Amino acid sequence: MTTPVSLSSQLAVNVLDARSLLAAFGALGVGVVMFAETGLLIGFFLPGDSLLFTAGLLCTGSGAHGVRLSLGPLLAAAAVGALAGSQCGYLIGRRAGGALLARGRSARLHEGARRAEDLLGRYGHAKAIVLARFVPVVRTVLNPLAGALNVPMRVFTVWQVIGGLVWSVGLTLAGYALGSSVPNVDRYLLPLVALIVVVSLLPLGAELYRSRRRAKAGEAGG
After folding, report:
1. What gap in Å lies between CA 25 and CA 35, rounded to an integer?
2. Using CA atoms, how far apart are residues 79 and 99, in angstroms rounded to an integer?
3. What is the residue-wise DSSP string for the chain?
4. Cα 193–195–200 angle (5° rounding)?
5. Cα–Cα distance measured from residue 131 to residue 37, given in angstroms and rounded to the nearest whole number
6. CA-CA distance, 104 to 162, in Å (whole number)?
7. pLDDT in tens, 162-193
8. Is the Cα torsion angle 65, 48, 202, 99 positive or negative in sign?
9. What distance in Å separates the CA atoms of residue 127 and residue 213, rounded to the nearest whole number?
């Protein structure tokens, strides 16, 4: 029988903390978070990159609090959640159009939408869909945006599957490889997660820097 204390500890989940999510829900939680972050605009704040990496690390038994996951089910849950979520986001965007994004009140969400549109315009559909997987927020809004902009479904599906598998499986295996090769790596988990977050934000920062340089060059030329 579940005691009130253990029940409250299960319910007190910090959705922004990868370890808290994994301790509460395991591999199933990874799949749900991947779906929400890539398919539903309300999931733009979820810790996709750090969750995948931490989950892979916990498959080695290196995690704190006795949390250990099985690699096979984890990879399947991560891939299915990421691919199904992206396709769902695209279909929602295709049906609802730009009105869905227009109703969003988050400045971060709108900035992500602008970046996603820039990616599509600058790199073309295929490259933008793959690159967006590695940029937080952008990977959330690009899918419905692609649907709203009538990106061909076949093109979107092929490239979101490729990008989704590289992202979800790649980050999970990176965590697993590190946990397998470094003893007691869980001692350094917080710095590692912080590093992953910083690295995942680098493409967005680079794009912002280049945009500002182009704007300044345009002002100087004008």
Report:
1. 14
2. 29
3. ---HHHHHHHH---TT-HHHHHHHHHHHHHHHHHHHHHH-GGGTTS-HHHHHHHHHHHTTT--GGG----HHHHHHHHHHHHHHHHHHHHHHHHHHTTHHHHT---HHHHHHHHHHHHHHHHHHHHHHHHHHTTSTTHHHHHHHHHHHTT--HHHHHHHHHHHHHHHHHHHHHHHHHHHHHSTTGGGGHHHHHHHHHHHHHHHHHHHHHHHHHHHHHHHHH-
4. 95
5. 16
6. 28
7. 999 999 999 999 888 887 877 665 665 656 66
8. negative
9. 23
- Cα atoms found within 13 Å of the Cα of residue 138, Cβ hemisphere only: 23
Q: Are 31 and 79 in contact (CB under 8 A)?
A: no
Rounded to two decimals, the pTM is 0.74
The residue count for the chain: 222
- pLDDT value at position 111? 75
